[in-house]
Amino acid sequence: MSMSVENSVYDVAIVGLGPVGAIFANLLARDLLSVAIVERAIDIYDKPRAITLDHEALRVFQAIGLGDFIEQAIAPHNGSHYLGVDGEIIKIFDPMPPPYPLGWVPNVTFVQPEAEQALRDKLAGFANADVFLAAAGVSLRQDDGAVTLTARRESGEDLTIRARYLVGCDGANSFVRKQLGVGLEDLAFDEWWMVVDTLTSEPAKRPAKSFQYCSPSRPGTFVPGPRNLRRWEIKLLPDEDPEIAGAPDNVVKLLKGFTDISDLTIWRSAVYRFHALLGQRWRDRRVLLMGDAVHQTPPFLGQGLCAGIRDAVNLAWKLKLALRGDADDALLDSYEIERKPHVRAVVASAKEFGTIIGELDPVAAAERDVRLRADLKSGKAETIRQKFIPDLVSGLIARDAKLAGRLFVQPHVRAPDGGVCRLDDLLKSEFAIVTAAAEPMAWLSDASRAGWQRLSGERIIITASGESTDAKGILTVVERDGLFADWMRQNAAAAVIVRPDRYVFAAADSVDELNMLVEQLLQNLSAGR
After folding, report:
1. Which H or E element spans position 307?
2. Alpha-helical segments (H) within 407-528
3. In whole angstroms, what is the distance from residue 84 CA to residue 216 CA?
4. Tens digits of residue pLDDT in 105-135
5. Cα–Cα distance for residue pair 267/262, rounded to 1 Å
6. Second label for 126, Cα 20 to 30 Å away, from 142, 467, 480, 508?
């Protein structure tokens, strides 16, 4: 028996409702696109998965209206100490000092199932998003106008969904990736680790820092989560069987090697194979892949989920523009062009830290300790984790222009209604031209202004003093900490063109440059038409 979903053609079908699929669905639904999501499971996955988010990911939670939720669900990540063979420090990651460039603490911990529940609850409030749980994809085919997905429900009936585009957010064993026959490039990392989430009855018993135990006899990681969550990640040694390692008594035994467990209750544990893999193609006409379906990273930079969230926010606005006719379909090719090198760089750093932590040869470990201590002492070692996250290097950015590919800052500002909030809360998910004074905003020619209006672009002036107003299509806000003013001054910029995902297209410091860049953007968007 089969049923066809009544709504003839959705804008976007999504396979997979993990955190990445749920964030992507929320972004699309918020932008008024019609979305169908199919997910094999009924319940949220209950094993330990991601525990860290960065400020870029928090900004995306904010964008989908979950800023207040995530604010109370997170704890600051207070940095990491890498301990060598002798138990002394060999490497440090410090928290980034304020003022925070994106308006959020740069690194935090969170509880994934809680965040997933909030994402699903938010999604349930959209009439334009249909969620089909316990429905597994069985086939997909595409023609010139749409993709047809067939999914099988637990009851045995088939469900047919047609959509203009389909996105596979269905994890490492992706059905969509396999249907497309997309291969994975192996970036040469393959280790078995056990992840144990525990709840402590004595929250003050251990430092509020992460520790990397770089001990050849048993490498491991300690991460204090929000509230009473404490996590250990423990490397399995070459002669240990992953099947046997996960047995409850062995979990206790391994945990006792790292800490006194008298205050701990084991909440959940899992044995994972940490990989470094990169999909060879991210798009096949109307079908695209994101998250673990198209890249997997070892967790040593805490960037696995963050990378998937970046995918979601990168693709969502491009689909919106293509579907509403403001951009050519070729814009969707910029998704892989922008994201793939970024992921490759993040995986390379994660692998490097994994190699440091996981060294099993005692002689090599001793040499590592000497080398890293020297780097730390000389000041050569980078101690801010976020510095390992690259900017965009190509795609829809004005490559030779100032600030192109960098993340736009997010100051706290006074809104026209008098309340203080983060800047993005006052913006739509559209392009924006932002200036530090009224004068550069007046640089826009009639042609630029008309093109900007056609694109639904916004205009924002951020000042250090005066009144916050919203008049004649220009939002003027007063910032609290001088963050934006300092950033513009340091980069000698007068105006900046910001994409809907809050990456900078380009910055300008003269009339001619600003108008030329606006024209360039409008041309790039309609390139293939």
Report:
1. helix 304-323
2. 438-441, 446-454, 483-490, 511-525
3. 9
4. 999 999 999 999 999 999 999 999 999 999 9
5. 14
6. 142
